[in-house]
């Protein structure tokens, strides 16, 4: 039923916006309906006892759009969010947060396919860099590359531990020609970061210390808990939704 011409729902319209659709015996929005909120956003989909509940599409006036499951007014379940900057998240939600498995496509074409926790990359995941074709495959903690992982390029890869988005400690380069270079990454403080792996922080560069060259050997990811490799004082801004981890 529509609010138009209904004095009974006049007060509701002023607070919650205009609504056209089903209602229950108590007069609550219930079933399928369409609402225009006072701020200009719109919602079209299922309701239960006046709350968005079930399948629906929410359009924000800034151009963003969410299509998927709702539970008690919150994004919850499977859904796709289209952001105004052109990025997109498709995956699981828990109480309005990206949580569980999902795929995020960034404005520059990069993608992250993996686990999320409380809106951040967390768990196992693969980050693919669109421009170069390189990718990181491994563990994430609070939005950052952390613990065991591998950085895969077109003709070689690096396998080792990571801390706060940087390779750290023992690791190895594996080359497609059939050999490996074993060594260790150390972090050194300098006035400017311009080392092999790019600008990582205002005063930090990475130094690769080679140890030996061997044939191909099995790689067993380290067993350290993710937090054990975190470098204090190097907190990264990459925890935010729209930020991409550095390309090494």
Automatic annotation (TrEMBL):
Q: Can you supply one Gene Ontology CC term for this chain's record?
A: nucleus
Q: Which InterPro entries match?
A: MORN
GO BP term, example: axoneme assembly
> Ranges of Basic and acidic residues compositional bias?
12-31
Task: Output the PANTHER family linked to this UniProt entry.
Answer: RADIAL SPOKE HEAD 1 HOMOLOG (PTHR43215)
**Pfam families registered for this protein in UniProt:** MORN
Matching Gene3D superfamilies: Histone H3 K4-specific methyltransferase SET7/9 N-terminal domain (2.20.110.10)
Q: Where is the composition biased (Acidic residues)?
A: 1-11
Instruction: Provide this UniProt record's keywords sorted from A to Z.
Output: Cell projection, Cilium, Cytoplasm, Cytoskeleton, Flagellum, Meiosis, Repeat
Known function: Functions as part of axonemal radial spoke complexes that play an important part in the motility of sperm and cilia.
Spans annotated as Disordered: 1-56
Where found, per UniProt?
Cytoplasm, Cytoskeleton, Flagellum axoneme
The primary location reported for this protein is cytoplasm
What this protein is called in its record is Radial spoke head 1 homolog
């Amino acid at each position: 039923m529509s609010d138009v011409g209904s004095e009974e729902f006049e007060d509701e319209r002023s607070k919650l916006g205009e609504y056209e659709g089903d209602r229950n015996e108590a007069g609550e929005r219930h079933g399928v309906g369409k609402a225009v909120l006072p701020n200009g956003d719109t919602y079209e989909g299922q309701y239960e006892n006046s709350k968005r509940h079930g399948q629906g599409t929410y359009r924000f006036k800034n151009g963003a759009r969410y299509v998927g499951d709702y539970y008690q007014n919150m994004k919850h379940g499977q859904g796709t969010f289209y952001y105004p900057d052109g990025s997109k998240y498709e995956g699981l939600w828990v109480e309005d947060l990206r949580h569980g498995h999902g795929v995020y496509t960034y404005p520059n074409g990069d993608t992250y396919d993996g686990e999320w926790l409380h809106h951040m990359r967390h768990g196992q995941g693969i980050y693919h860099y669109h421009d170069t074709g390189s990718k990181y495959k491994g563990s994430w903690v609070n939005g950052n590359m952390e613990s065991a992982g591998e950085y895969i390029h077109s003709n070689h890869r690096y396998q080792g531990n990571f801390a706060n988005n940087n390779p750290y400690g023992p690791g190895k380069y594996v080359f497609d020609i059939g050999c490996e270079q074993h060594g260790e990454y150390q972090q050194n403080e300098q006035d400017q970061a311009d080392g092999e792996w790019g600008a990582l922080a205002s005063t930090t560069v990475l130094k690769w210390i080679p140890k030996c060259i061997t044939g191909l050997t099995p790689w067993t990811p380290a067993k350290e808990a993710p937090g054990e490799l975190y470098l204090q004082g190097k907190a990264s801004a990459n925890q935010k939704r729209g930020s991409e981890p550095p390309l090494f």
